[in-house]
Design brief:
heterotrimer; A mainly alpha; B mainly alpha; C mainly alpha; A: 3 helices; 0% strand; C: 6 helices
């Protein structure tokens, strides 16, 4: 088949290098995970500590947004090469999503 | 497996179409079923015009009129216009980018069958206790009060066919992103492919809100939820927002491919490169973007408040800019061209003034205070028929003539085509132009009759006469189709003689594997470039002849869709307390998910067309082409 | 594609999920589906926000009185962790270590099941309190939003289980690698949605 994969034969050093690179990446993922847990803890703590709503709501929404960025870019590899078109459609989707939410919390009738 | 098109028995042909994953055959399925629903919607339109022919007519009762009106709109938009455009997208855009196939042949077939079963389900309402009667917009306050199962047919039917459309949209997006031939950069894609791409993107992002809205409707009517029930804290305006967040992009989903078809026609029959290709592409993208920013102009009179109305009024007026860019580019494409007035070209030329008229009344309605006057009057009816019939339907008719040879290998009669055009075009303006004035005189839309003392008799009679002319035009088209099929005169690769894009470089109809070798694209209008350079082979190819990998046909898409069709009945009759309803619902879903599981567990690796088969097939094609050439010369004497 | 072709870690491509055209198509198509899903969930969230605490006059339930944070916290931690374990699974997939991948996917499935169990417990609890699906616009919106997420969890789990069982004997190849990868992507997306659910529905619900 014309579009099938080409066979790859890596040298020993090349293979070791890639493996090591992946292990480093994996450590990065662990850091992202730690950050997510941390952000979640902050969000729950803020609510449990009973601050003013005007303080809590924007902060926890911001924390959620950061978590989503971590998920999308690290766990789902949207930062990797070849994800340009996907990012474009994801952001278009997020844009429409944002519009819909904005509508329903503002101009939906009473 | 072999491509040789031997005569097959009737049963074998039916089975072939039930299991096909070939985008060209799926295109034919879309065209036939979309065409069928177009006729159904047309009959409904005629019934409306007969009822309104004279004051106080009793041809239809008020209730039946509501049903006919609702089904006319729903059928025409969801089951006729969109599928027929999907037919052209399937038939043409993979060829235009030199793709071997679409990205997801299986899903392509699934998309069709979902649409088909959804459409059948919706139309079965006529025979099972009454059709939906809350208008095609199905506003919740009306829909929740509607008795019987009409609205349930609407919501479940559109859910099923909506999934199909979403799948089709994803399929085209991925095909265009991943499967363009070497050299086919984004800015070399033919405009029909570009509009397919943008329309698919709109489908991707606009159908989910509709699906969610319809799900709420199903939950409210069948499972006791309270999304729209004001006494239980619900809000009917939520439905309106969801409907129009979907509904406005939907009109661009319809009109953009229409623009694409006309762009191809203008270039082909003016024998000129499209003027301002880049501007046309960016205008298309811009229209797609604005499509999501303007939905509330359908809701000016809801009472969203002056700020919201002002914002949406401005946004709406801005859309006229990219559309205007397109109009001028088309005019400048014709300007100085070597024009041949074939049937598609006549439609294209007629489209410009018709569509501009619809666009101008659209901008009028964007003025929110004026919209308070025009809202729910016949002015609105006139406006949207000018854009949809004057834009989309003219494009569908033009596209049918233009792509018929590519899809079926025969040519529709030009003479009958012109008759169709004149009947339809005159009938169209006769029907709808006068409705602007009826609207300004105060005639409300969606009302089943009017009084003799209101002074609307003459104009309504003229309007009905126009509808009759349109019907005659369509009948002539049907005669044309039957005659063409009966005659069965084969045509070659490029029957119009001036094809510019890749689909005209391949036999009509194309072999099931499309291009035997993937073509190399050397610029915009690749086939035209090769012609101008005197390339006798047709194209330059990017790869040597080799085995081609093809997907296997499958019956599973049909079964998945059938399962949903059955489940929908169960869901609907569940509320009537039938004991069998719940098992039917569960059974239908089990069929659907079971067949999905089978699909996912069973390896389906497809098959290969060998190089030898390709060579043999190519010789057959050459032989036929020579015979055709000889026949033509003989016929000319 | 040759299913019997055996790969070793040395011959396994860097990005097996996009190494074939089929895989690449699936990969792009799936991301597009996720964009559509984003809009779907946004619609559900928007409706929930519009209908939050709305009901017939005298409705006894409100978000601030109903939701309990400890349970939601546990569910959040479980789902976040399962997102990490599926990252581990994909790490081993890329290293062509089938056994390790299956093991991590197994853990992911167990965590997913635990999450699902807690969600069922939670819904059951609310229904027993008298907060049923048909009680009010608020309850309908709540159950449909959170329930749709739950249905996604069920689908994701079934997908993982089907893939693990189907390929248990034959290991990784170019045909199933994209499938594993997409199932993991789907699982992350479920987590993304949950992040907004615990923030918008539960945390913002509790503070009123």
């Amino acid at each position: 088949m014309a579009h099938d994969t080409h066979d790859i034969h890596r040298s020993r050093t090349e293979f070791e290098f890639i493996k090591k690179k992946r292990a480093t990446e994996m450590r990065g993922q662990l850091t992202s995970f730690a950050m997510m847990i941390f952000l979640t803890l902050i969000a729950f703590t803020l609510v449990a500590a009973d601050f003013s709503n005007y303080l809590i709501v924007p902060i926890i929404l911001l924390l959620a947004a950061i978590q989503v960025v971590l998920q999308l870019y690290n766990f789902m590899h949207m930062s990797n090469k070849g994800h340009g078109m996907m990012a474009f459609f994801m952001f278009s989707g997020i844009f429409v999503a944002f519009t819909i939410v904005l509508t329903m919390v503002t101009i939906v009738w009473w | 497996m072999s491509s040789n098109s031997q005569k097959k028995g009737f049963g074998a042909t039916i089975w072939d179409y039930l299991t096909t994953v070939d985008h060209k055959k799926i295109a034919i399925l879309y065209l036939i079923s979309g065409g069928f629903f177009f006729l159904v919607g047309g009959v409904e339109a005629m019934m409306i015009r007969i009822q309104l022919m004279k004051a106080g007519n009793d041809f239809l009762s008020a209730g039946t009129y509501n049903e006919v009106l609702t089904m006319h709109g729903t059928t025409m938009i969801f089951l006729a216009a969109m599928p027929i455009l999907l037919a052209f997208m399937n038939a043409v855009s993979p060829l235009q980018i030199g793709a071997r196939d679409v990205a997801f042949p299986f899903l392509n077939s699934l998309g069709f069958w979902l649409f088909f079963f959804g459409g059948i389900f919706l139309n079965l309402s006529w025979f099972l206790g009454g059709a939906p009667d809350a208008g095609w917009t199905n506003y919740a306050s009306l829909a929740l009060a509607s008795e019987g199962h009409g609205i349930d047919f609407y919501s479940l039917g559109l859910t099923i066919s909506g999934f199909g459309t979403l799948i089709a949209g994803i399929n085209f997006l991925v095909t265009i992103i991943n499967m363009r031939a070497p050299g086919m950069t984004y800015m070399r894609m033919p405009l029909f492919t570009w509009t397919t791409f943008v329309a698919s993107a709109l489908i991707l992002l606009a159908f989910p809100p509709l699906t969610v809205g319809i799900f709420f409707m199903v939950f409210d009517r069948l499972f006791g939820a309270n999304f729209f029930d004001v006494t239980m804290g619900g809000n009917t305006i939520i439905w309106e927002h969801f409907f129009w967040i979907f509904g406005h992009p939907e009109v661009y989903i319809l009109i953009l491919p229409a623009f694409g078809i006309f762009s191809e026609i203008f270039a082909i029959f003016s024998r000129k490169r499209l003027f301002g290709y880049t501007a046309l592409v960016f205008a298309t993208i811009l229209i797609g973007f604005y499509g999501f920013m303007v939905w509330a102009h359908h809701m000016f009179t809801v009472g969203l408040g002056p700020t919201a109305n002002a914002v949406f009024a401005l946004a709406t007026m801005i859309i006229a800019v990219p559309t205007g860019i397109k109009i001028f580019n088309w005019l400048l494409t014709i300007w100085g061209g070597n024009i041949s007035f074939t049937v598609p070209m006549i439609y294209a030329v007629a489209f410009i003034p018709s569509f501009v008229a619809g666009g101008v009344t659209g901008v009028m309605q964007a003025i929110a205070p004026l919209d308070y006057q025009l809202h729910d009057s016949y002015f609105i009816v006139a406006h949207f028929h000018y854009v949809i019939v004057g834009g989309v339907v003219l494009a569908i008719l033009a596209g049918t003539h233009l792509y018929w040879p590519k899809m079926f290998g025969t040519m529709l009669s030009e003479k009958l085509g012109k008759w169709t055009f004149w009947f339809f075009f005159i009938g169209f303006h006769l029907t709808f132009f006068i409705q602007h004035f009826l609207g300004l005189m105060g005639m409300p839309r969606r009302v089943y009759t009017f009084g003799a003392d209101q002074g609307w008799d003459l104009f309504n009679a003229i309007s009905s006469a126009g509808a009759l002319l349109m019907a005659i035009g369509i009948l002539i088209l049907l005669v044309n189709v039957v005659m063409t099929v009966m005659k069965g005169e084969r045509v070659g690769n490029d029957p119009w003689g001036d094809g510019r894009t890749l689909e005209w470089a391949i036999p009509s109809p194309p072999p099931f594997y499309n291009f035997a070798q993937t073509p190399l694209v050397r610029g915009l209008d690749p086939y035209w470039i090769e012609k101008m350079e005197g390339n006798k082979e047709g194209m330059v190819y990017a790869e040597p002849l080799g085995d081609i990998h093809m997907p296997n046909g499958s019956f599973i898409p049909f079964v998945i869709s059938l399962g949903m069709f059955i489940a929908a009945f169960g869901a609907m009759y569940h509320t009537d307390g039938h004991a069998w309803a719940l098992p039917v619902l569960i059974g239908g879903l089990a069929i659907t998910f079971g067949s999905m599981l089978v699909r996912s567990l069973k390896d389906d690796l497809g098959f290969h067309v060998t190089k030898e088969e390709l060579i043999a097939d190519n010789e057959r094609i050459q032989r036929e082409a020579r015979a055709l050439e000889g026949g033509k010369k003989g016929g000319l004497k | 594609m040759d299913l019997n072709k055996r790969y070793t870690p040395q011959t396994w491509p860097d990005h097996p999920e996009t190494a074939t055209l089929e895989g690449k198509n699936k990969f792009v198509g799936f991301w597009l589906l996720l964009a559509a899903e984003t809009v779907t969930f946004a619609s559900l969230f928007a409706t929930y926000l519009a209908l939050k605490d709305k009901g017939p006059s005298g409705m006894e339930f409100s978000a601030s009185g109903l939701f309990e944070l400890p349970l939601v916290f546990a569910m959040t931690m479980i789902l976040l962790t399962s997102s990490l374990t599926s990252v581990y699974a994909m790490y081993h997939m890329k290293n062509h270590n089938f056994k390790a991948m299956q093991a991590w996917l197994g853990i992911t499935v167990l965590l997913g099941l635990a999450f699902l169990g807690l969600e069922i417990y939670e819904f059951n609890h609310y229904v027993h309190l008298g907060f049923g699906f048909t009680n009010s616009a608020f309850s309908s919106a709540f159950y449909v939003l959170v329930g749709t997420h739950g249905a996604h969890v069920v689908f994701g789990l079934s997908w993982f289980i089907a893939l693990m069982l189907r390929n248990a004997k034959r290991g990784l190849n170019m045909y199933n690698a994209p499938k594993f990868y997409l199932a993991a992507l789907y699982w992350h997306f479920i987590d993304v949605v949950w992040v907004f659910i615990f923030t918008v529905v539960y945390l913002m619900g509790v503070i009123g």
